[in-house]
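Study this protein:
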Amino acid sequence: MPAPVAAKTWTWITNQRSVYSSVLQSTKDILYGFKTGLMSMSGATVVGSSIGATSSMDAVDRWTSASVLGSNVASRATAGATWFVADLANMGVEVILAMPSSSTHIVLIACSATGYSVSSTATPSKPADEVPLGLASANDGVINLHSSVATYDRIWNFGYTSDGAQCIMLVARANAGLLFGCLGKVISAVVSPATFSPEVVGFCTAPAVALTNSMASFLSMANNNGYNGNAYVNNGATSSAVVLMGGTEAYGGDASSTARITWTPELQGGDWLFPELSVWTETGTHRGKVGNLIDVWGAQPNAKDGNCYPDDDSREFQSYGAFAFPWNGDIPVLL
């Protein structure tokens, strides 16, 4: 099959450079950039914000620039935190960006259908239905945003759909992708009596290990493979968070961590395969397929971060690690 056809219209904020001065400043630059992207999405409104000393759920955007953001704090319960909460009405969730960790490169990016509240300057407490991009069991879902390496500029990108229901976050350093984060609705496969509400999943790569072209890492979504995935499912009586695993076409009978997935050009036209990706869960009574990802496909095993398809000036799709996704034609910058 040829390159896929995007189901949605995408807009990208591309090749934004954080000139290195400190790991903390890189974190501030990237989070402020992601905030700008979130607020560019259709249906997005401010719920509340904090720059450390001043905070409130008062619909005021205090994140007026990266320079005004406060420092990181030791934990989610520590006062003086820096955070931002946006309501993405077309996604059906509120999204939080925060720095609740003693490590300056560790952040929280998560969403909740029930929403966030705060009674102090601490980071808003974790709602029961929170879907973090990081592992739910690891420090409330925080993620390694861009690595702790004290050299090199960081390059960030933020893409979002015209319907405001999907976004992709990218971070690169030293000519390599570090972070691929995806938050948005899926084509739900969950049927009664379980409900998948909202139909939103979050998953990301972790730069603690090299961003890899190995699709087997996505399939297992294990932290030591660099992929984290979470969702929230309600069976009509009780609700529970579910840990996701990836799925795609493969062959052979091996475990998902060693699945044989081989793509070669088809013989007649020489087109490359871009397999569709899905997410599954083995959590409790919710075992089974959650849904198909929208506008995210498997990249070619030999693809490099920043490779674009077709191989011409249109650059309709870009690959980043194990993933391919719609792109806007710009030449990707990774250094």
